[in-house]
Amino acid sequence: xxxxxxxxxxxxxxxxxxxxxxxxxxxxxxxxxxxxxxxxxxxxxxxxxxxxxxxxxxxxxxxxxxxxxxxxxxxxxxxxxxxxxxxxxxxxxxxxxxxxxxxxxxxxxxxxxxxxxxxxxxxxxxxxxxxxxxxxxxxxxxxxxxxxxxxxxxxxxxxxxxxxxxxxxxxxxxxxxxxxxxxxxxxxxxxxxxxxxxxxxxxxxxxxxxxxxxxxxxxxxxxxxxxxxxxxxxxxxxxxxxxxxxxxxxxxxxxxxxxxxxxxxxxxxxxxxxxxxxxxxxxxxxxxxxxxxxxxxxxxxxxxxxxxxxxxxxxxxxxxxxxxxxxxxxxxxx
Length: 334
Known about the structure:
The protein is mainly α. It has helices at residues 3-27, 34-56, 61-104, 106-129, 131-134, 140-149, 161-181, 188-210, 214-247, 254-286, 294-312, 329-333.
């Protein structure tokens, strides 16, 4: 290989890549046009190949070090820039994307909420009319503790908060993922979970009400329930989205409907998981804490629920996800 001729032929590419990198390092990736970003990716591949050839042909160390520096700078800008875009996409999703999905799927979430409330109302009515009905839903040990000892059961969490919080999160996640997966049963299992959990909360609420323990019980529930219950409703809504795709694909083929509604269900999952993590931490550390007055727990729960409603009501007025037509460089390279 004629080294001088090869260098003369390849050097314009190196200089061009260096110029693009200097521009990025000075003004940022957004200063490049889409065509320049594609050119950057192409030049990076080309110079990386030149570096490999220079090493193979044992061309001078100075040139090898120069090419090594150039490829390192390009790699850093390309992949760090891509990671920045990924983090920006995550930020934009939680700022605007998730509220938008909640608004688009509100009918399904409302259906899940209605089934839960129906179950709670049925349990409340029958538990007051027929005390034996309560034992069909609530564990006997819990009934005995409340009715005979006039005590709530949440005190068992105190002293083992980290373990309790982890267990609560895992249990809540399993319920929610069960409700989502229940969509594959045409929504039957999702509906069952909504109604059953409603029956449970209605029966327990009646039990504590009959034994004059409603005030401390709901003080315990309000703090974490303001996030935990909406997360369960979101999960039920996600399950009903999948059921809609299976039962009523409409103008879409069933496979395409599953992709469309499944995508919305997955986006709801991205909202459900952090909600349950926060709710589990509150239920493990805040709700059962005897040193926190009950009015504070009520206020915290109401405040969290209001913030959640305001968050889910947000309207996006400007789409920042595609600023300056930026291209994901990782996709360009692959």
